[in-house]
């Protein structure tokens, strides 16, 4: 699902507006070894954003600092982060597929913990098996996401919603739009799967800053 980025207003989000690159979503492992292998878990309707989602207390914004690691204890994620830019065609670059326990963050945008919408993305699988965000669709509201920062601190986020979208109806503004408080999106591939085209959509986790240390 490579999509070009169009511009949105808001600090730290000048270039963000489209979806995760096709390289995240090819489903090479399922293509090679799909027989009898379970597909990644997908979020239930109960994990979708509700009218009260995100109204929990928000911690004060942190100063800008590049992140170094993401931890999601509920699904066993503990992974280093690499910076992601845009490709020559204007789509979000992706972490190397061969490094299954590596995620990336959009380094031209908001850093996790400062005011705005920070973006972290990672593969759901690769040719060898499950990758860093294979279980992202199993995450539930209220779960904790910790992002270690290069300034020595840790930004702690609470999950507000976990949703899945078909690529044809991906809500760019909702996912990538500017936010008045520190927010985080964690993105991987999901939705229906085709052995000819790979995954048909994306799983998106919405979270906001609730602490720091």
TrEMBL record:
Q: Does the keyword Membrane apply?
A: yes
User: Annotated region Disordered: where?
Assistant: 35-68
Which top-level group of life is the source organism from?
Bacteria
Q: Output the SUPFAM superfamilies linked to this UniProt entry.
A: Sortase (SSF63817)
Q: Which InterPro entries match?
A: Sortase, Sortase_dom-sf, Sortase_F
Q: Which UniProt keywords apply?
A: Hydrolase, Membrane, Transmembrane, Transmembrane helix
Ranges annotated as spanning the membrane: 12-31
Keyword Transmembrane attached = yes
Name of protein: Class F sortase
